[in-house]
């Protein structure tokens, strides 16, 4: 009987010690997480300030859009139509930039080869030959 009680007492202390150890580990991990979140917050703030200095109107537009969405403006038909038109315009602009980039890289590649085709194509663009 005495041995059973002493075993229970030791087990109780070992469980209590493990609980304290886990609690200390959790506290340390929570402090590490808080420190990481603080660093992340500082990084995000720095990036936002940099963007605000470089592109103030874009940041203002993004802030207005986020406020509009959070304010519940997204579900309306007018908003969906506006977003659809905006997406089409944006995609058109992106495609234009892509095509212009491809055309300029093609002209640089052809101009650098110096063959008769490159010269004839260049002359045609200039209005000669």
Q: What are the defining features of this structure?
A:
129 residues; mainly alpha; 2 domains; elongated; disordered C terminus
Overview of the molecule:
This protein is mainly alpha-helical and 129 residues long. The protein has 2 domains: 1-75; 76-109. 90% of the residues lie in helices and 0% in strands. The protein is built from 4 helices and no strands. Helix 1 (2-54) crosses helix 2 (56-70). The protein is elongated, with a radius of gyration of 33 Å. The model is unreliable at 114-129 (pLDDT under 50).
Topology summary:
Elements: H1 2-54, H2 56-70, H3 77-113, H4 116-126
Helix pairs in contact: 1-2, 3-4
**Global Rg:** 33 Å
* Proportion of helical residues: over 70%
User: Please, how many domains?
Assistant: 2
Strand coverage percent: under 5%
Helix run count: 4
- Major sheet description: none
Q: Mean pLDDT score, rounded?
A: 76
For the terminal residues, how far apart are their CA atoms? 113 Å
Kindly name the structural category: mainly alpha
From the spread of the alpha carbons, the general shape counts as elongated
How many strand segments? 0
List SSEs in N-to-C order: HHHH
Low-confidence stretches: 114-129
